[in-house]
């Protein structure tokens, strides 16, 4: 009993102190101006922009020029989003080449040459508009133009329309799927141009490995609905399948600077004729470009907005 009385006595002493330590409840009512300011801030357009560039230039015994650059920008306001993407890559190399023209098994000074060759010459521009129907559903339209001469494509222009939906989102994982129609006009280096009407499918994943590191992956498939007469012959419907896969790992170095490693693979089941050399091909000989092109990049990205 003495112990119980002691505990009750301590509680009686401490209770006023605990009560005094509790903050007095406050009720704040937002004014009409406060509500209007909050709504205005919520609907304020959101801009994002980043750029990257790289250059390698060597002279002397090794002569190589390599240049790559990229830019992305977007603006989102309420249910509307505009995005823009641009990129270019160029590579030229010059190596010593010996040709035994007289067939004596040895090279004389006039049989050594140093020709230069452009191994990469590609660029692209793309714009897209999304209209969000709900938070997870949107309709989109896009247009783009590109070129890749080593792959036999002088100029490629395309437009797309379709539907986009966020399929799954939980904490740091987001899966998105898209479906629609693609119209591409392809002007080949060694053949006449033609139009391709295609079904389009797209899937992407975005995830956060940590607060500063993220991973992005996507795959796009285009399947021709019309038969084609290309520089390499007749192509039936759904025989021209074009796949593009991308994987990127990004980590923040600071608030404005990030390091990014990316890998891209493009597969074309009906590739264009290979670009010609200075000497023409033999009559009837039409070499085709490789079906698979890959690109790996390690770049620094500067956030502009």
Structure explained in plain terms:
The protein is mainly beta and 305 residues long. The chain has a domain at 127-303: Porin (Beta Barrel), CATH 2.40.160. Helices cover 10% and strands 59% of the residues. The protein contains two helices and 16 strands. Strands 1-2-3-6-7-8-9-10-11-14-15-16 form a twelve-stranded antiparallel β-barrel. The longest helix has 20 residues, at 2-21.
What order do the helices and strands come in, and which of them pair?
Layout: H1 2-21, H2 32-42, E1 46-58, E2 63-77, E3 80-94, E4 97-98, E5 112-113, E6 116-132, E7 137-148, E8 153-170, E9 173-188, E10 194-208, E11 213-224, E12 228-230, E13 233-235, E14 241-252, E15 257-268, E16 292-303
What descriptive keywords fit this protein?
mainly beta, 12-stranded antiparallel barrel, 2 helices, 10% helix, globular, 305 residues, Porin, two-stranded antiparallel sheet
- Total beta strands: 16
Largest sheet: 12 strands, antiparallel, barrel
Seen as an oligomer or otherwise, the chain set is: single chain
Low-confidence stretches: 6-21
Strand content: over 45%
Summary of the model, kept short:
The chain has helices at residues 2-21, 32-42, and strands spanning 46-58, 63-77, 80-94, 97-98, 112-113, 116-132, 137-148, 153-170, 173-188, 194-208, 213-224, 228-230, 233-235, 241-252, 257-268, 292-303. The protein is mainly beta.
């Amino acid at each position: 009993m003495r112990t119980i009385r002691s505990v009750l006595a301590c509680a009686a002493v401490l209770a006023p102190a605990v009560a005094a330590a509790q903050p007095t409840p406050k009720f704040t009512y937002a004014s009409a101006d406060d509500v209007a300011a909050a709504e205005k801030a919520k609907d304020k357009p959101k801009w994002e922009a980043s750029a990257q560039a790289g250059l390698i230039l060597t002279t002397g015994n090794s002569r190589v020029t390599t240049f790559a650059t990229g830019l992305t920008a977007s603006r989102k306001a309420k249910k509307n989003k505009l995005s823009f993407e641009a990129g270019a890559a160029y590579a030229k190399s010059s190596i010593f080449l010996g040709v035994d023209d007289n067939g004596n098994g040895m090279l004389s000074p006039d049989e050594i040459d140093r020709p230069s060759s452009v191994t990469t010459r590609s660029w692209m521009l793309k714009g897209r508009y999304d209209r969000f129907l709900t938070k997870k559903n949107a309709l989109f339209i896009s247009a783009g133009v590109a070129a890749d001469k080593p792959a036999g494509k002088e100029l490629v222009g395309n437009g797309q329309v379709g539907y986009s939906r966020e399929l799954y989102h939980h904490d740091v994982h987001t899966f998105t799927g898209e479906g629609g129609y693609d119209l591409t006009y392809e002007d080949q280096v060694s053949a006449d141009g033609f139009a391709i009407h295609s079904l389009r499918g797209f899937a992407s994943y975005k995830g956060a490995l940590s607060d500063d590191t993220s991973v992005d992956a996507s795959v796009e498939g285009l399947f021709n609905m019309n038969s084609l007469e290309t520089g390499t012959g007749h192509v039936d419907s759904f025989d021209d399948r074009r796949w593009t896969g991308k994987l990127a790992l990004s980590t923040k170095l600071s608030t404005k600077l990030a390091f990014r490693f990316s890998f891209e693979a493009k597969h074309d089941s009906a590739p264009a004729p290979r670009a010609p050399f200075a000497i023409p091909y033999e009559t009837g000989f039409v070499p085709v470009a490789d079906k698979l092109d890959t690109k790996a990049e390690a770049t620094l990205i500067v956030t502009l907005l």
